[in-house]
Structure formats: C-alpha cells, structure tokens
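Example complex used in Figure S2.
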Amino acid sequence: MFKEFAKGLSITFKHLLPGHSTTVEYPKQKLEMSPRFRGLHRLVPTQTREKCVACYLCPTVCPAKCITVESAENEQGEKYPRVYKIDLLRCIFCGYCVEACPVEAIEMTDKYELANFKREDFNFEKERLLK
Amino acid sequence: MTPEVLSLSNAPALWAAAMLVKIIVAFSVLMGIVAYATWVERKVIGRMQTRLGPTMTGPNGLLQPIADGIKLFFKEDIIPNEASKFAFVLAPMMILAPALISMAVIPFGGDYHFTFHGVTYLIPMQITDLNIGILFILAMAGLGVYGIVLAGLSSNSKYSLLGGIRASAQMISYELAAGLSIITIFMLSETLSLSGIVAAQKEVLWGITALPSWMHNWYIFSQPLAFGLFVVGSMAEINRTPFDLPEAETELVSGFCTEYSSMKYALFFMAEYANMVTISAIATTLFLGGWDGPFYGWINFLVKVFGFMFFFIWIRATFPRLRYDQLMQLGWKVMIPLALGNIVVTAIAVLLWQ
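Predicted assembly (485 residues):
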C-alpha cells in the first residue's frame, strides 16, 4: 500500500518539475489549425470576379439555411451572385457548402475568433467573404 | 547579568507593548501565509496536473489572492430565507476563530533579549506560554467542528446538512486518533507546555555525537508512528483532501458551505488554510523540534511549516477522496488501535529506561 502511495507522490512530483506543463496560453500563444479545420468561410476570387457562378447548390444543401444567393448576369453574359450572404449566427460550420460547390468557389479558412458586438456584424456579405 | 522575564508585574507598559507587537506580527504573518497559501496551492496543484495555475493577475499570478479577496468582498451576501439567521452568521466566525486562536500557544522562535533602562529583559517568542498548551490546542481543534456542523444545520439545505453530519462524524473519529498519538509525546516530555516540549527536544539524539550539531532528539525519531498518525489524523480533522468528505464538490456541491457567499464564504476558505498553517505549526512543534534547527530561530520554524504545507498540497494533488465507509474504517479500525498500541509500547519503554 505504501509503495503505491510513494509511486503516486513521485509521479505528481515529477510533473511539478519545470517543462511538464501542457497548457497553451491561448491569447498570447495560438495552436496551428489543421488544414481540414472548418472556420470562417471565404469566397475564392479569380482575376476579375469571384469564382462563384450562382448555381444555388450551397443554399440548397445548407442544413441551417444560412446562405442567401441572388444571381444576375454581367456584361459578358456570365452568371454571377449579385448577393451572397452568410448569416454566421445560423451557420453550423458543417462544410456542406464547400463539398457541394461544383467550381470550388467557397472554402473554409482557419479563422475561429468570430466574436462580435452586434447582431448585424454576423451577416457576412460578399465583400467580406471575398477577403 | 541574568535577563529578567518581561511580565505584567515588572514592566506593565512594556509588557503590553511587546504583547501587542507579538500578536499583530503573528496574526499578520499568519494571514499573509493564508493568502499566499491559496496562490501556492493553485500553482503547485496546477503544475502537478501539468497545468500552469494562475498566470494573468500580476507576474506569475502573484496578485491572485488579492484579486480573489476583492472579488469575494464585492459579491452579494446572500442569506437564504429559510436559514436560521443567527447560526448562519455565527458559523463562519466559529470556524475561523479556533483556527487562529491555536497559534497563540505556539513558540515560533528562541527567546529575544533586549535592554531597556539598564535592565535586560527576556521576551519569549510565543504569544502566551500556557502550561496546558496541548490541551488548549486539542480543545480549539474540537471547537472547530461546531462551526462546520452549525453551518450545515443552519443553511437548511440537504447538501449542507449531509456535509455537516459527515464533518461531525469524521472530525470526532480522527480527533481521537490524533489526540491519542499526542499522548506519547507528553509521556516523553513530561510537560504539556509547548515551549517545554521544544526544550525537551534539544538534547543529543540517542547519544550519537557524530550527527550535525543541529540534529537533536526530535520526537519524529523516537515516535515515527505517532508522527504519521498525527499528520494523517489532523489532515482528516481539518478536512484536507483526501479526507475532504464534508465539502466533496462532486457529490455534495461543496457540502457545508453550499449556501454561503461573499465574505462568509471567504471566512470558510480562510479557516481552511489557517487550519492548515496551525496543524503544520503544531506538528512542527511536537515532532520536529519547533524552532530548533540549522538556521536562526523563527526561520527554522517557517521552513518546517512551509514544508508541511507543501506536503499537504502535494497529497491533495495526488490522492483521490476516500469513500465514507473507508474513512470510518481507517479511523476506527486502523488508526485508533495503532495509537493505543503506541501508547502502551511507549509507556512500557518509559518505565523500563527512565
């Protein structure tokens, strides 16, 4: 019995020695996200416009119904999203929109610090998503 | 010129001043240790569980106790409607006061000499040298139970009541073992005064002269079993982990102090740490030769007390809480028989060799 006590005490004492802490002091020190991490969305731009062709697959597949798309035609006669809006308060970060997209126009970044002060600030319009 | 013991009769004003200084110094040092024991505990337990402990308030989180104090001070003070108000308010005081009072009889250093108007006075570094010091400490330890039981009863909450009931059963059974283990000490020292016990531990250890000059016949060498029983028993008596069944966060939502908030809760918290300091001081005095040791007077004492406190924190970080029946079994079937046996053996030894 006393042998086990001593063993336990020695284990905890070993942890006390410097260099055994596993804490990441978060705001000062951040872990690197894995490439498949599902953070804030991003619309992929091309040279002149966004890659998105407004096919409506992402609002269709979205289980939280947080994506609003309105399509229009530009001067070259191509379809483009006149409005592309994600309501981040509804979004569940499932990544189905990324999977559904036929042209790989939407992807998920490693940004996870998404806190904000106003409700309106969680409406991500096209311009913010293109950044 | 032989120094004169400063007393009420030979220099009343000086005596009162010296007494006040001693009380203020002892109290403030005790409170400082209590405050920073919380910081050390969080830091050490954190490290032992491979965390960091407080880091944000001040360098290394050193201002954490002050931040905690301010936070608790400004919290709303809630007294439940159904609680018995008088007992509810009285309980935290009743638990803190005995913990602090016990420090009054503990010698924390050698005598201090000074000359005033041509007369050399001697001040014992002890607030008061009661000739029944150990009995006083046992009595105060016994009073500590009432605070917890009262808190549990008066809160009018089933968790608090369970905590209080557990506390009373546990503290009574372990007080027996701890008290019985002390008996062997005053069988050897033949005095109940704590300064007398320290003086009795200043002889050469078993006639061995090869030891370093500060190694004396501390009672830990002649009474190792009593020492172990006393440390474990008093750990249970002050509700330290692994014997913290009265508060048991996981099952009783912190037991007897569930309904307390604000400064009343802070008093319980302080009492827990003050008890820890007191028990460390008592164990130091009884078994480790008090302020005897390689350094200067009170430094030895503080080193030993801090050593004990580190040990208690270490134990807390290592062992899980005992089950209630295991606790009772350990107390009544193991520790009390061992303590009684120790008394018998010591009595025979004293009869044979002295």
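The first helix of chain A runs from residue 2 to 16. Chain A is about 25% helix and 20% strand.
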